[in-house]
Amino acid sequence: MSFPALAQDAATDSDTLNRLLACRALSDEGARLACQDEHLAALAQATESGRVVVVERQALREVERESFGLNLSSVGRLGSFLRRSDSAEARAAAETETFSDGSVATYDETGQIESLSGLAVQSVDRVRNKLRVTLVNGQVWAQTDSTPLPGVSRRAIRDGLTVEIENGALGSHFMRLSSSPSRRFRAERIR
């Protein structure tokens, strides 16, 4: 499924859901039930045909997190799509989110991921004197600047080495290793 199609379906087929929800305003119980039956059948048909897709917010957040660092403009719009109907209180409460693996996403005011922390490291290699960090979730990040960084031992990885990745200017990213939290270096996602 492509996310532009998801957003388009939500915009064009939202009347299907809105008509069902509008039935709640009918005061006559019989008319309300008939309205709900009619529009619930339309919603069921729309979901069965795939015109309307119901996805839990958490599943979309997982996709957004897994694609962090990739240049996928359609996925980048998920945050604003998810938060466009949130109240100010809900947006304030959702500034951070902790995932099942313990990693934490911090969101900006538009709902875009600003940083990820607590991502577990699978391996760290040196390629041409720059670090290449492979995360447990399969993401691979490569150092792009010349910041001198100490080596990372296998023991540090075995003991739970994590990284923090944050957005920089113009689509760049910065990474910190939990073993050297004071050293921040530029990195790009290569896989």
Name the beta content range: 25-35%
Radius of gyration: 22 Å
Shape: elongated
Structural class estimated from helices and strands: alpha+beta
What is the percent of helical residues? 25-40%
Low-confidence stretches: 1-12
Order of strands in the sheet with most strands:
3-4-5-8-7-6
Number of strands: 8
Can you give me a brief rundown of this structure?
The protein is of the alpha+beta class. 37% of the residues lie in helices and 28% in strands.
Labels describing this entry:
191 residues; alpha+beta
Give the helix/strand layout.
Blueprint: H1 3-12, H2 14-22, H3 29-49, H4 57-66, H5 73-76, H6 78-83, H7 88-93, E1 96-98, E2 104-107, E3 113-127, E4 130-135, E5 140-143, H8 154-158, E6 162-167, E7 173-177, E8 180-189
Antiparallel strand pairs: 1-2, 2-3, 3-4, 3-6, 4-5, 5-8, 6-7, 7-8
Helix pairs in contact: 2-3
